[in-house]
Amino acid sequence: MGAIQALRGTQDILPTEIGYWQQIEATARDIFAKAVYQEIRPPIIEQTELFERGIGEATDVVGKEMYTFRDRGDRSISLRPEMTAGVVRAFIQHSLGAGVHRLWYTGPVFRYERPGAGRQRQFYQVGVENIGTQDPRADVEVIALATQLLQDLGLKSLKLDLNSVGQGEDRQRYREALVSFLSPYKSELDKDSQDRLDRNPLRILDSKDKRTQEIVGDAPSLLEYLGDESRQHFDRVQQLLGDLSINYHLNPCLVRGLDYYTHTAFEIKAESLGNEATVCGGGRYDGLVAELGGKETPAVGWAIGMERLVLLLQQLGEEKPPKLDFYLVSRGDRATAQALVLAQKLRYFGFSVELDLSGAAFGKQFKRADRSNAMACLVIGDAEAENQTVNLKWMATQKQEAIAQSQLLTMTDTLKKQMKH
RNA sequence: GCGGGUGUAGCCAAGUGGUUAAGGCAGUGGAUUGUGAUUCCACCAUUCGCGGGUUCAAUUCCCGUCAUCCGCCCCA
């Protein structure tokens, strides 16, 4: 077969579904603007080292899912597998400095994985980062933005899972406790968990293997190992979420896949998406800025997977049909020329206008007008062209009147009212 | 990366080891050189994702490959 196809795991977003994307983008922009978050657009490619250092070489995302290649200067380059590392790199590079920085972004990210529904190799994220404060209010502000966005899109029955993964010393102590608890059971754990026992033991907590889950059920809880500072932070986050009436479920097994998280970790899930249930994931990452060479700077953020949101919106099935003011029906050389000019003028006055280019019989053109959901048709044939008039026909009532073309443009206010602009 | 299902027109689909590959929707032209429903007629896959094999004969059976979907893993 000669035709070239899109690469596996990449997708064309066609006009039939672009409405969902635009709806998400518009809603997000509006919410971010009101909370004074500013857009940032980091590049799609970065030095591979940025992700290795930022996200962690032991993570699946970096270890086996990254698109990495050498460029002509023999540098190791990677397509970004997520946006936070790039945003933080930009923050450091441009010395954005002290104080609180509220940022948001959207764009494609890349992970080399087996594609499926709601899971692509090139997929789109929208996310926020609140950089510069350790205040638990920042954690909650950010979570509130996510829940508001989902709510404004009409998505209900989403579940917010919350946990604290503590910080440095807490996690080190817990890690030791967990490893010594699990080691006697090593042979009973699933294979992946056995491998993780020394590499990344915390991730064993959210293994879906049944036997592993049973064992983990009796393991010491991360929450019991939180130091005073972590404990206080987490308590305050929960209290503030309560003040905002944001419902959440404590999930002590929630451990996120990227190394940089500290304190608050959360995910928002939709059960109707089955396996690919996580719509939004995020948390606090107080160590990342320093890890990437900046000053010690606390931060918190999240990312939403846009195609999963689109799937949820499609399940709601409430796409509005595009509205059209005028459908222009014309035939004959003089008439089609006049129709073209009239269409341009009406657009200048703010109307949406579709010009029928077929030159087919009027009957065919009206049929298309009907399907286009136009409020009204403007008809120019030989007779109208001769008199410089136009027939205005309202599709709903079938009422029709002849108007001078020049006059039509003087009654645009009246027309707009009838169009319910 | 592993296990499984699927692949016939723009879309939804029936079908069979035997030579013309149903049907529906959409589209185009016409009945109706100038008015939307309905109707009627015609056209719309030299070919069944792609490549190879078995066979006198393959869309059908076999192998490979690509794509897609489900599960595992992981995440958004």
Unreliable residue runs = none
| CATH architecture title of the largest domain | 2-Layer Sandwich
Strand order of the largest sheet: 1-5-6-11-10-9-7-8
Strand content: 15-25%
Mean pLDDT: 90
In CATH, the homologous superfamily of the largest domain goes by the name Bira Bifunctional Protein, Domain 2
- Calculate Rg over CA atoms: 28 Å
Separation of termini?
Answer: 49 Å
Counted beta strands: 16
The geometry reads as elongated
CATH fold assignment of the largest domain: BirA Bifunctional Protein, domain 2
Question: What helical percentage do the residues reach?
Answer: 25-40%
Largest sheet: 8 strands, mixed
Derived structural class? alpha+beta
Give the number of helices: 16
- CATH uppermost class of the largest domain: Alpha Beta
Q: How many distinct domains?
A: 2
Characterise this structure.
By secondary structure, this protein is an alpha+beta fold. It folds into 2 domains: 15-166 and 226-316, Bira Bifunctional Protein, Domain 2 (BirA Bifunctional Protein, domain 2, 2-Layer Sandwich); 324-418, Rossmann fold, CATH 3.40.50.800. The protein has helices at 15-34, 48-55, 60-64, 84-93, 136-152, 168-182, 191-199, 210-217, 228-243, 288-291, 306-316, 333-348, 362-371, 382-387, 405-408, 412-418; strands spanning 38-39, 45-47, 68-70, 76-79, 101-110, 122-131, 158-164, 249-250, 262-270, 278-284, 299-305, 324-330, 353-355, 374-380, 389-394, 400-404. The protein has an 8-stranded mixed beta sheet with strand order 1-5-6-11-10-9-7-8. α1 runs antiparallel to α5 (136-152) and α5 (136-152) packs parallel to α9 (228-243). The longest helix is centred in the N-terminal third of the chain and has 20 residues, at 15-34. The chain binds one RNA strand of 76 nucleotides through α3, β6, β10, β11 and α11.
